Amino acid sequence: MTHLVFWHGWGMRTGVWQKLADLLKRQDMISLPSLPGYDDTAFPVPYTAEAVVDALMENHTAPRTAPVTLCGWSLGAMLALLAAHRHPDKVQKLILFSATPSFVQRENWPHAVTPTLLSEFTQAIEVNVETALKRFVAMFNHNDINAKSNVKDMSDFNIPALEVLTGGLHILRDLDLRDIVSGITQPTLVIHGAHDPLMPLAAAEWMKSTLPHATLKICPQAAHAPFISAPEQCADWITEWLTA
Is the pTM above the cut of 0.85? Predict the structure, then answer.
């Protein structure tokens, strides 16, 4: 039986995975840990990508003898890539939703949001966290065929400390994984929405071509959260890939 460990994205809760987890749990072991600082969990200070990954791996995989399949979404996908690099003995496979090696545009990397947009959002959460999170959810569901229901499903916030939210945004601002992706040898399933307004499809295509053992599946009518917009399709892809 495969042990699937799901890491959610910035500002979200583990409940975002519930529809997909319910479709998979009959055949797989499922763990839905909160990212450090979410749902009243402890968090490292400073809140760096390396510290977050190491805490997650220690808290949720160390007691188990078998390596896990890490499933990450957005920020969680970036952290999963870093975990596969830092803890290759504990990560057997990767499933990445809306993944990218760099969340913001950089030299030779246009497939991302602008640094200005991320900076504006960082300022917005300091003014009104809940309003900023609602805006964020609406923004990344733009052009999704199920945008309205997606937004409703994802608007049940349990807002963590501002330090945690700001730390996560700083990770998104600073983390650039392009130099390590080609060395990540675990089999990887990349699932991406064709209409993702944050991570253009070109980012997923780069992941497919750069990871040594990657498979890319594209949800044609989804945006940034394909596992919420099309959970049955995503579950079928995952099951097929895991059993191939």
Answer: yes
